[in-house]
Amino acid sequence: MSIEAVETVTLFRPVGQAEPDLIRESGWRAFPPRLEGQPIFYPVVQQYYAEDIAREWNTKDPRSGFVGYVTRFEAGAEFPRRYPVQTLYGWYQEYWIPAEELGEFNENIVGTIQVVAEFRPDGDPAEAC
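Now predict its structure.
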C-alpha cells in the first residue's frame, strides 16, 4: 500500500493565553471554534507577521491574557487555495477562512500545531512552550 504525499503549506497563527490550552486538548491537531463576533479565522503566511500580532496586539489585550503565542503548522495546500491571499499594509499576508469552515480547515492540518514563540508585556520574547 502506498502513501500519497500531500502538498502542504506552512502557516502561522497568533493566539492569546487561552487558545494553546484548547489546542492541546485537541492533541495539537485543531484550532478551537471562533467566538461570537469573530466571523473569520485568519492563518497568516509569514512568521514575522504572526510575531508582530502576538507582540503588539495580544500582549496589550486583556482577552488574550496579555500574552501572545505564535503557532506554526502545515496544512494541505488545496484548502487555503480556495481563498485569495489577503495582503495588508503592502506586505502582510493572510487567508480569511469563514468561521463556519474552521472544522474543515482543521481536518486539513497535516501533523501537529506547534508553539514557536511567546511574547509577554515586558517586551522580551520567551522561548516556545
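The longest helix spans residues 47-56.
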